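Field: sequence (string)
Field: structure_tokens (string)

Example rows 1 and 2, in order.
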Amino acid sequence: MEPLHLQRDGEKSLHYQIYTEIKNQILRGHILPGTSLPSYRFMSRKYGVNISTVEKAYDMLEVNRYIQKRHGSGCYVLPLDSLEFYSDTVMLDSFEHGQSLSEGWIDFASSTPVVGIEESRSFAGLIQKLAQDKPEELLRRPPTRGIPALRDVICENFAQRGETVCPEHLHIINGCQQGINLICQSIISKNSVVLVDDPGYSVATNSFQRAGAQIETVSMEEDGPDLAALEGILSRIPVDYYYTMANFQCPTNVTFSPEKRAAILTLAEQHGFVIIEDDCLGELYFEGGQKSTLWNTKAHDQVIYLTSFSKCLAPGLRLGYMVVPERFERRITAAKFNADVATPAIMQEALALYIKQGLYERHIQTLRQDYARKRTLMRQMIEASRFLSLPYHNESGGAFFWVQLPENVESVELWSLLQRQNIKVIPSIACSQQAMKRHFIRLSYAGCDEEMIRTGMLQIQRETERLYLVPPRV
């Protein structure tokens, strides 16, 4: 543990200063999980404070789940609770007020598109047409699995790719996050072991943890998960589920190689675990055609497939779908019914018509072109920077970059500084609990125009350089 700097004439009490200093060292990864903190008596002598002052500080650390007191043994640092830091601080701060449209903000945190006038008018026109043609159907309670019109058009899209989806196994949901929560409510239990990527999508990890699952992590490489590490985990513990993104993985933007996709499916069959595939970014490819998925007709019993229209069309729709193996069908349907009975019919009907009329395909082609331009600009500025780098090769698609900072620049410090300058990013502490991965940020270009990208990236470069040269204390 690094020395603490206490101000005896400061406004904050000494016990609160001790708490804050130790908490910040834990958040920065300078005190690792499992580390034993110095005793009350040692801290009292070292810093010239009462034992009761140290005890109060440690009590605060325990209440806020940074440490665990073990009777007769000492106080030990707990693994970072990403739910507390990420969801309550980074996620809520970035997203609780909706998509930022206020002047002066540059949002590199959100990976959802800004809906344009054309899309808004198209949907408004379709809703108006539906209200004229069949108003009675729009306000009826729809089937729990979703309206037939939308499920049919989705099944038709699968058929065009040579895949067959049974309509009974397809569920319309309120985005991928609801799908994850339905899985947690229906098939994840306190006895479940869930494997996740590291770095990975912490919101899903937190959901699995709240459901009581034991979490195991596998490191991400340039072409997918570390297979040797994955096989090592499988050799020592029975894994029930593996949550992952094979296309444009969050936050690294890595797309799995064909070899690793095949290996993962083989391991799933051999060891009996189910893959939960989140493919919310799969359609955001810029060249090379549609990316394949882990889910396919042959592997339909091994994979729960999730995707959303939020990342490719409009986040305000809150529409997505999941394809569920037959053995989970009834449990997922019951969970969906218990959650909200059914997704509102009006937006389902409008989306089905939007897809049937070819408007979605036209929109996604335009979006890919727009993203490709913005991705090229952001990549050029990252590569031209002295203090920013890309640890993984550039994938031609997706919505963000996983950017490496210098080793002495903490992502949480940079995040905090940028927040005060109306620039939003995602710090790596929100995506990984490993201390070695605390020097990264995720930058998305989805919600910014090119001028915002230029302005924001120049400011990130300036602040990174300043932190590199004179690392500040938080």
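Row 2 begins here:
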Amino acid sequence: MEDDHYCVQVGGVEAYRWVKAKLEEYYKAEPGEAHFERVYHALHELAAMKLHDGAVAKYRPVLHPFLRPEHTLTNDALSAAARTMLRAIYKIVSMSSATPKRSLAPLTAFIEGLQLNAVPRIYTTNYDDLFSQAFPGFFTGFTHKKDGYSLFSPRDYWTKWESPGLFHLHGSVHFGFPLGQPKRDPDVGIGDLAWYDNKEEAIKHAHGGGSGRSRLDGTQVETSAIITGLDKLGRLQQSPFLSYYGGLTREVNEADLIVVLGSGLGDLHLNTCILQARRGKLPTPIVYVGWWKKDDLREAITWEPSDQAVAMVQDLRIDLSRDGQMQYDVYPGWSINTDSRAAVYAGGFYKFLEDPTTYSKVLEKIGA
């Protein structure tokens, strides 16, 4: 943040440090809970609750008369810190995408294997482009080619249903705003996102500037090419995210197989989509790839289950009860519940990719 002159000038660095310190004290029993999404959420919501003098009624935050700020930070400082966090996250992920820490060959082989029997439709919450590096040419819905970028086409997204697709539900290092073009493009609406093939060019246009997007409670959401914080659902009312989220709901209900890779299941709005397909007498087969100590799912079964374990039971409908039907360690790292047509791999994403033979055997056992 110290590199951002405006953020330093208006007190954004102090605002960030104050919020982070407050959260670390609040979560002192578990310091890791004061993570970047909570810091960003606190900064944004605190800024939203500051009343702007002279604002007309509809732009006055609904909760303001009930919540009195107990700090002296200015709205500019809080907003600058939040914006700078978004810029930093985007830049870090973009740079790390350029140099993957591990070979992408196993991921390429996994996607190619999916294509042999199905049409892979991948919805990711990651901002990086490792999937598109491993398998170039995915359909994204950004089909309207322009000079240097592509615009999203809702019509193409909804009609090209049988194409291998990759959809970034929370933004991408290839997303940016088509602003600053030599001539104003009539096809570009305010707040529209574009796809830049060149990540370095995308960084230049990753932040919309100007005012944010209005919410019904009188506050605003910062415009950005990525979505973070604890209010992701409220930020999905923007293209292409609105189409992606609606499409995911359809995808999981029409899918022959759902594979959840490396998710901690913390995005409750996405869990709700999967739940729809996992209800009923014959739920859609599901494979969940996570990581537990000793590559053993039984590490998740405790008297105080984690949020992840609770979501596995309630949203993914994977039976982890002590007297349930889950068969543990059927294959190394694999637990299978054929009654609910579910399998869990506990050895992590990369080890999962390295053993496609066992994965094929697991699919047979859960009827996929």
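free_text_note (row 2): The two ends are 48 Å apart (CA to CA).
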